[in-house]
Amino acid sequence: MVTVNDNYLKLPGNYLFAEIAKRVKAYKASNPDADIISLGIGDVTRPLPKACIAAMTEAVQEMGEATTFKGYGPEQGYPFLLEAIRKHNYLDHGIDIAADEIFVSDGAKSDCGNIQEIFGQESRVAITDPVYPVYLDTNVMAGRTGDLQADGHFAGVTYLPCTEENNFAPPLPKEKVDIIYLCSPNNPTGTALSRAELTKWVAYARDNEAIILFDAAYQAFITEDDVPHSVYEIPGAKDVAIEFRSFSKTAGFTGTRCGYTVIPSSVKGRAADGRLVHLRSLWERRHTTKFNGTAYIVQRGAAAIFTPEGEKQVRANIAYYQENARTILAGLKKVGLTAYGGINAPYIWLKTPVASWDFFDRLLQEANIVGTPGAGFGPCGENYFRLTAFGDKERTKEAMERIATRLHV
Ligand SMILES: *Cc1c(COP(=O)(O)O)cnc(C)c1O
Predict the structure, then answer these.
(1) Which label site among 32, 86, 252, 379 has the fewest CB atoms less than 10 Å from its CB?
(2) Contacts for 199-205: CB closer than 8 Å, 24+ residues apart
(3) pTM > 0.90: yes or no
């Protein structure tokens, strides 16, 4: 009989969101009239910008005419989108990235998950705790870790604890690591790395021949000047960093699907025989072999984000979520709860007076609000709780009123 990839068996089930759904269902069954507000979703709710809709509608029409029909496109992305990304997200910010260093894809989750394929099996991986689960799980699947230990950590992985004590900025590892996943602004903590913090990591990567995998999915939410939007704002990063970006949280593309990965041609790794190899070439090989390009219609929609109207509409959507974040932060402060994040990200990371799952139950039962227990993102997430700013404005306000009047903190 066929054998299976045993590494998959090391992974626990998708316990977090299944457990949340189970508890909400049970509560609803015994309280059918409860009006539940979800501040747990990691998905946008505002519709796509009008400029994107107009561009995609036009692209649909093009697909219906023999003279403008498009079949397979370039795997790396259409030049019109690559050039728009290069100009608006890099050149205009003083960062020189070439169009052929950008790879358009169906989203940052796939890229963050697939990138590990181009690294050697023995490469040591460092992730933060708490963490966006994709970085860890894909390395488990690939066999780059041992088993899950009793402490909730996988053997063979370097965990970087992000806590109140270090302001949720990951400390440099004690042992030498090869691959470092950094997410800033961060999901789930909602905090972001300052220029000084990121500079420290670039220096570490340069000194230790390590690679930084920088997930900037939430860069559009940055409000503070001291927080880099791109890892390449740090001098020297172009030799040691790969950057992931997404139109999902920026422009509401979670269901439309478009993102991209930047690999400068100066980023290198070492082959078994000691030769230096361009990571960009390996990723290009992978991308062209396993991916057949993002839909033309979607790429037209993504490019419209960079038009003046598109930019204005995107800013309005982000501002809507940012107002929710301020509402949540103010609401929590009012009842004396300590909360972090929410300033450069759509996530608020609050400190729970009880264990995070107990807080989940109390918030659900007393205020009929659903959030995400921090423990689900890693052991260091215990005693924290994630609320998101992606909800409806009025419902978010209502949730904060309920916390003030119904929750026994
Ligand atoms: C939402 C999210 C992404 C983006 O995923 P897409 O596949 O582009 O929708 C990437 N990284 C993090 C940390 C996220 O939360």
Answers:
(1) 32
(2) 199/234, 200/172, 201/172, 202/231, 202/234, 202/235, 202/236, 202/237, 202/240, 202/241, 203/236, 204/172, 204/180, 205/180, 205/240, 205/241
(3) yes
